[in-house]
Specification:
438 residues, alpha+beta, five-stranded antiparallel β-sheet, five-stranded mixed β-sheet, elongated, binds adenosine-5'-diphosphate
Amino acid sequence: MMRRLRRAWRAGAWRLAALFAIALAIGLASHAPIACLLAASALALGYNLLRLARFARVLATQRLVPAANGSGVWGVIADTIRERQRLALAGKRRMLRRLHDFRDAAAALPDAVVALDREQRIEWFNAAAANLLGLEYPRDLGAHLHDLVRVPRFAEWLHGEAGDPLADLPSPVDAERHLSLRLIRRAEDRSLLVVRDVSQLLRLEQVRRDFVANVSHELRTPLTVVHGYLDMIEPEQVPEYESILHELRNQSRRMTQIVEDLLTLSRLEARDDLPRERINMRPLLLALSREAAALSQGQHTVLVEMDDGRDLLGSTKELHSAFSNLVTNAVRYTPAGGRVTLRWQREADGGARLAVADTGHGIPAQHLPRLTERFYRVSTSRSRETGGTGLGLSIVKHVLQLHQARLEIQSAPGAGSTFSCVFGHERLLEPLALAGAP
Ligand code: ADP
């Protein structure tokens, strides 16, 4: 292109020089050189002005400058612009194709996707969103999503800051279908709502729960019978089977405990809420320390520290059982001579925690995230030796969830463990005697 431009420029310059030479020659011959030179200049200027005006019209009226639009320098300029326009158009077409591909892919997703602007108005949604949320195209574009999806909890969640997924929301189209929702923040405060139909998953989960509950229930009676008969046999009557009898009794007791724990878990899983009773923590902690001392049989030091005088709001029975699990574990996993401390502490955010600290074996870091899974044990043999079922911490987690509380575990091998139940301030009550005090 540069060579062509140079050539065109040179040819143009020669043409102009020839025009002025001819004008000068005519001017000298007619004794009016200045007038002839002026006429030649006007001709050259007029011609270029005309080309410029034509070119401006082409640019204004046509998307693409036509090919071979003029010769000389003007032709080169036109071809350069045409080439640039062609490249820009090709780029635009490529972008559009990609945009369409992307929209097609999003439209074909089995999950509902709704793009929201910063005011949470609908910018775009796919076919699954129409199906799961009852949105209609194009009627609902630009509408506020919370005006269209009128289901309890939805608007509150959508405007919330937490960003946690919303699990198990009934579909506004069909209350039998259950949805799981996730809000993903995009640039400029816009967001993307992704909704998945989890009805099938919940049904399977329910089948699993029912199965475990039914099996546990069915096992209860035969186990009681076996246990009962084993208890009736005195080891002195069958001295040769004494050790076998002892083992049989141990195992049947363990099985009974596993069945009881499974039934407790099923019962907790089936509940959304627990009674809200005022729990005075001092007597509860003292009762727990007595349980620890009884289990320890004097082999451990058991301490109680009350840094917070407030009462707790929750189910006395379930919380006692959860705390008792932690205290029992602390004694079971701490060698003789160790210390178990029960601490009721105020949290900086107004909540409180019940911490059960021991100076026992401790737990390697890689096990910590999995400890509350059913039957997860760091050491199966140690758990069995001490009569564990592997379900204790699962039960604790469920009880705490039903109190909107969480379990925190700090532990390191050789440095002991601290299991803490952390409650929010809405679960705490000033003690009755002080409630009316200024
Ligand atoms: P288990 O009945 O086996 O004690 P849990 O669910 O109560 O079951 O606990 C799960 C596992 O967590 C235990 O097997 C044990 O390995 C570990 N664990 C629980 N509490 C403690 C503790 N205080 N110190 C050390 N390890 C513990």
